[in-house]
Amino acid sequence: MCGRFTLSPSPEVLAEVFQLAAVPDLSPRYNIAPTQSIAAILQTESGRYCKLLRWGLIPAWAKDPQMGARLINARSETVAEKPSFRSAFRQRRCLIPADGFYEWQRTKTGKQPFYFRMQDGSPFAFAGLWERWQGNGTTEAINTCTILTTEANSLLKPIHDRMPVILQPQDYATWLAPTTTQGNVLQSLLRPYEAALMTAFPVTSQVNYPGNDTPDCIQADRSQIDAGLL
Asked: Does residue 41 register a pLDDT over 60?
């Protein structure tokens, strides 16, 4: 799964990487958690744009918006059939920019957090879906999103059996295009990212608490590294 991630590059860098005319004035984030507002990149006929969405997809048919807290991830293997996601998979796909994410390894003493990023530290994009929800009695629609997951690559497997889908830059346009409707084409993009291009290291338990959102969250835990953990 993917339950926490980071996005620290400047708006100018994000605009260049994702070919955006403008990006909201985003502050660096080091511990983004479910139900918070996150940056997402959507596509219209006039081009790509960045929009803030709530992390945790609320299906259009849902009666209770609290349902979104349980739908922060969608399994790529079943996303085309699941009632919660299939409409968004066909019509409302997005990129969710990030520059790292966390996973937790079960140990005898609890759970050890690890931070994963690209070898060169560059930003990348998760495959995402978005949805607009407006329940009975609400005056304003809520725009929400979810992150797709797939089986773990060789770097993640010792830590967790799932990982977020990280799209190749050359696949951004295909994923975003409203005209891309062939399920087999979309499914072919939802594969584990190449492990050799990524790196990982253990971090401290600061990331366990969503209120901690500082660069300290991504600092390597030297005590664990010296002990031979990864």
From this structure: yes
Give one DSSP letter per residue of the chain, joined into a string.
----EEE-S-HHHHHHHTT-S----PPPEEEE-TTSEEEEEEEETTEEEEEEEEES---TT-S-GGGGGG-SEEETTTTTT-TTTHHHHHH-EEEEEESEEEEEEEETTEEEEEEEEETT---EEEEEEEEEE--TT-SS-EEEEEEEEEE--TTTTTT-SEEE-EE-GGGHHHHH-TT---HHHHHHT-SPPPGGGEEEEEB-GGGGSTT--SGGGGSB-HHHHHTT--
* Verdict on whether the full-model pTM lies above 0.70: yes
Domains and CATH numbers, the chain: 5-102+117-197 (3.90.1680.10)
Question: Which are the catalytic amino acids?
Answer: 2, 103
